[in-house]
Amino acid sequence: MVYLMYDIKSIFKISILLSGIIFLTAPWNARSVNAENTESFENSRKSVSLYKRGVRAYKKNMYGEAIEWFEKAIETNEQNPSLYIWLGNSLFNRSDYESSKRAFENALSIKPDHFDAHFSLARIYYLTSEPELALEHMELASGIDPSSRLAQKYLVRLQKQIDADLLLENESNYIFSVSFDGDRNPELRNMVIDILMDAYFAIDYEFDARPDRQISVMLLTKEKFFDITQSPAWSGGVFEGQIKIPVSGYDLDRLKTVLIHEYVHAVIFHLMQNRCPWWLNEGLAQYFSKDEVVNAKKMSRSMELVASQDGIRLAGLPGKISKNAEKAFDSYSLALSATAFLFDDLLTLYQFQDLLTEMGQGKTFEQALEQVSDIDMEEFENQWIDSCSPSSF
Questions:
Q1: Of 324, 331, 333, 257, the residue nearest 295 (C-alpha)
Q2: Global pTM?
Q3: Which one of 112, 331, 364, 365 is most buried, by most CB atoms within 10 A?
Q4: What is the C-alpha to C-alpha distance for residues 385 and 302, in angstroms, rounded to an integer?
Q5: How confident is the model at residue 168 (pLDDT cuts 50, 70, 90)?
Q6: How many structural domains are present in the chain?
Q7: In percent, how much of the chain has pLDDT > 90?
Q8: Residue 281 counted as domain residue
Q9: Is pLDDT larger for residue 115 or for residue 317?
C-alpha cells in the first residue's frame, strides 16, 4: 500500500525550474531585442512580465491563475517552447490531461528535441493507459539526454509493464480498465470491477470527487508486481498513476481492502496531484478501506506511540516508506489515527469536502484546515494527541 507518484513530482520541479532558466535566457528576451523594433520590444517585455506573474502563481500552487498568465504570455510570444512547458505543467496539476498534452505538443512543434516535453508526454500517456505511447516519448527523452537516470529508470519500468501487459487479458468499462491473467484468475474479472465500482460511488459520496479519466488496474503475479514496482516486501499494492496489485493468494476481503485503498489514492491524486501530505494520503486510504481488524490494531499502536514519544508531529512522518515493516506499521498507524480524528471528531462531512476542494485549488493542508475550521495545525495536532490519551475514552 504505497504511493509513489511524489518521487516523480520532485524531479519535475527541478525540470520546471530549468525551463524557467531557459525562458529567461531565451533569444527573444527583451535585452536582446533590437531597440528599434518597438513593437517586438514591447511584446517581449510584456511576455516576461506575464511569465513572471505565472511563475509566482505556480509556486503558490495557484494553477488556475498561472494558466491564465502563461496563456497571455503565449499570445504575445508564440514561439518560446518554455512557455508551453510551464502551461502544460500548470494544466497537468489541474488534472486537465488533454489540454496539458496539447501544450507539450506545441512545445515540440517549436523544439522537437525538448526533453521536458517528451518526458511530460510520457507521464500523461502513462496516466491515460497508453503505455506504448508513453514508452515512445520516454525513449525520445532518454535519447535527448542519455545522462538522465530518471528517464532510464522509467524506460526500464515501462518496458517491463508493456511486456507484462502482452500476457494479460483486459476488461474495461468507462471508469476502469482491468488487466489480469485470464488463465490463472478467470473469476477475478467481474469481482474486481464490482469492487471498484462500489468504491467509485462510495468515495464519490464521501469526497464529492471522482477521477475524470479511466483508471488502469493491473492484477499481477507477485514476481511481476515486485519486479515492475520495486516496492518493499510488505507492500500489498501501489498507486503510481495506475493501480497495481499482486493477486496471488488473496482472499476476497483482502482484495477488496487493497483495491479500495489504492483507489482512494487515485482520487486524491486526481484532486491535488502530489500535494497531499503523506500522512493524510495514507490515512484516508486506510480509513476508507475499512479493514476493521487491522485498523483496530493500528489505532491501538498509535496510542502506544503517542504515550511513549514526546513531540510527535505529523510533518515528521516519512514521505518515503521504510522497507522495515515494523517502522512502516508505526507510521501508517499514526497516519490513520490522525486522519480518523480529523474525519470523525473535528470536521463535518461538508467541512471535509471543502478541505479537499481548497487543497485541490492549491492551498496547503494547514491553510485549508484553518479556512474551513478556524483551527491551526498546532491546535489540530494537540487535540489529536490528547484524543489518543486513555483518559479521553
A1: 333
A2: 0.69
A3: 365
A4: 10
A5: low
A6: 3
A7: 43
A8: no
A9: 115
